[in-house]
Amino acid sequence: MLAGIPIDFWLFALTLLGVAVLHHHTLAVALTGAAAIATYKLLFGDFAGVPGFAGLAALFGHEWVTLANLLGLLLGFALLADHFERSRVTELLPRVLPDDWKGGFSLLLIIAVMSSFLDNIAAAMIGGAMAHALFRGKVHIGYLAAIVAASNAGGAGSVVGDTTTTMMWIAGVRPGQVFEAYVGAAVAIVFFGVIAARQQHALQPIMRDNPVGVRVDFARLAVVALMLGAAIATNVGLNITHPQALSRWPAIGIAVWVALLATAGWRRPTWALLPGALKGSIFLLALVFCAAMMPVKALPAASWQSALGMGFVSAVFDNIPLTALALRQGGYDWGFVAYAVGFGGSMLWFGSSAGVALCNMYPQGRSVGSWLRGGWHVAVGYVLGFMALLVLLGWAPDAPAMR
């Protein structure tokens, strides 16, 4: 302990501080932090009560499915987003989107809707590809934060839209309980969406006219559809028939890569994108593993205040173990929790896998200071959405000790 706080948390805090300050060396900082925490626990601590290398091996055995799924999705969806952009369908969007700031706002709404049935990583990557085309590659960092926030908010109320809501569904939470999160998400999107769209319009207005002679590559769109269909079908199908398989094998990541490789002869992926995407992916995996090593055995007593705090914690702490702890503890209103853990990570670029994936496309987003200055409206929108849930629906918790 140091000042009443376990040394593990101090090391994790220093790692996050290093990521925030040294945003040009985030991968080295994250790997160094993970190594330091693991070394400290090997020498002086334990892993969930199991000391030494046996404890480390047990922890990795528990986390490897999550890590492998994230790696497969981040890399696969990086190539998917490139397929989507190279299909040139984004160049037809000016026909249907308004020409002023409302065009940027409409794009955020499209991303949120996509995320309700797609993985939020895919929604953010596709949204980033659309923004790159519509704004001619000049995207405001506040708008980048809004893309991430829209993708996370869109998945918060759907049991197939986010890993955390899927976990709740598997644990017995009814889809209707999770759906309530959309009340908060809608309020948040209106707030941050309008401000971000105006930021973007001031920097670079949306493309007004379609380029002449655009020919959509429908084969690439078909590849995108097949990859997304494989991910959704695997997720939903296994949740209904064999939910235990999802905890044993990275089935969703495998499904995406099977579809990608099966269609590679039809439309060749841009394999050159993988090295850059791999660096960003390893960074996120290192932070997730750091979070998994933290000695968090319980959350504060279930209340709307602790649920509100989960959102801020999830900006720096992996929301999957947070959700698992809440499910074991019980006594929460799951609509509030779904909104908090699903949306809260948007407040920092590395707070969610969608943010890390998007910053692989837009490296300028990897500055915590710039993200907070440009995307301040995301944090305010989170609080406003949570208050809307509290006022309009009220805190209606389940019984404690839910199993």
UniProtKB/TrEMBL annotation:
Record key words, sorted: Membrane, Transmembrane, Transmembrane helix
KW Phosphoprotein (keyword) present: no
Biological process terms in GO annotation: sodium ion transport
Record-linked InterPro entries: NhaD-like
Transmembrane segments: 40-60, 67-84, 104-129, 141-161, 181-197, 218-240, 246-266, 278-296, 308-327, 334-356, 376-396
GO molecular function, one term: antiporter activity
Top-level taxonomic group: Bacteria
Keyword Chaperone attributed: no
Database matches in PANTHER family: SODIUM/PROTON ANTIPORTER 1-RELATED, SODIUM_PROTON ANTIPORTER 1-RELATED
Protein name as it appears in the record: Citrate transporter
Organism whose genome encodes this protein: Ramlibacter albus
